[in-house]
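To whoever is on call:

I kicked off a structure prediction for a single chain this morning and the downstream step that reads the tokens threw a length-mismatch warning. I double-checked the sequence; it's 423 residues and nothing unusual in it as far as I can see. Pasting both halves so you can look.
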Amino acid sequence: MILKASQRGGGRDLAVHLMRTDDNEHVSLHEIRGFASGTLKDAFKEAEAVSRGTKCRQYLFSVSLSPPEHANVPVSEFEQTIERIEERLRLDGQPRAIVFHEKDGRRHAHCFWSRIDAETMTARQLSFYKKKLMGISRELYLEHGWTMPRGLENTAERNPTNFTLAEWQQAKRQGIDPRWVKQAVQDCWTKSDNRRAFEQALHERGFFLARGDRRGHIVLDHSGEIYSLPRLLDVKTKEVRARLGDGTDLKSVEQTQKTIGERMSPAIRRHVAESRAEFAKRSEKINAAKEDMTKAHRQARRDLVQRQKTEWRTETLERASRLPKGLRGLWYRITGRYQDIRKQNEEDAQRTRARHTAERQAMIESQLYERRVLQAEFKELRHRQAEQLLELRKDVGRYFRFSRGIQAGSRNRDIGVGLRLER
């Protein structure tokens, strides 16, 4: 189970984001503990109000718990993991909230603690929390026999295509997977040992090196979208400058975008647009199927909850009827039979709770399996589009080399290539 954590403020906006059902197919507020409020938004408002008695701005500590893609993890396992985190990070007794999300056939949880100790009015220190959480994550993979990601076995082998929320949103606007961009630029970086070789490798992939507003190195794609080079490479700025120089002699963003606009082949633009349109058309059908499935799954869960509530009320009344009242009730208390019946009622109630929990878990697992089948189809579509766009990027690179050749005086030699590209 991958555990990612952060200290943060902005609780009210966070609560709204967490409860959104447009980004997630299923959202459930599983627990609110230690807060006077009964809703997530009000609970986070409460945490913020308490924090104003301190100098702490990041008054919340959040942890996301993501099991392996095809693992069916019961709620009890999430709860045990959260208890382990709470004990290891010394957050015992702090107010907390737990939210479950389901999306793309996967289920994960978010847990949030208030960092403010109400008795001392100080923020709980969370020293080395990333290292401690990584240790817990390794333990969980070993205990469950899950295949451990290489990044957990050896931190030097972490997935180089991990991306931030900002990078994901940027790629989402462009209609591409951010991992494609990262992988392509990182391949160029690996295969080059100086700036000239790096720029050449970028051009072959349809990317351009430019100077940012603060003289940092940035990369632009064929559509003019801007990416931070150190972020794409997951390296420090000084490492980039050590290989590429300070970048003061590079073209600015505006100059580079103008060059791209002048050189971009209308045929290549059309091919890229057609590829994206075809992907959108095919993915629209899958998304329609996903929406229908989500509606059906939500209704099935509501029906189950309603049925279980009805069962609980009926059985509660039945258990209550077993306890006599009046003189007979007094006699049952004197003889001890009252306590025996009460104990039996508690055992029956516990069995009902266990049965309802098992029914909910079985429905969740069944629906996750159905959703994963649909998600596999969407992944295959996305993979085919990725391969097609990568080929188109190579065409962009070839076109730019042709364009530079004309400017260098090799017009006659490359005219035939240009005509073929335009077709």
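Update from on-call: the warning came from a stale cache, not from the record. Cleared it. Sanity check on the structure: The chain has three domains: 2-157, 166-263, 268-405.
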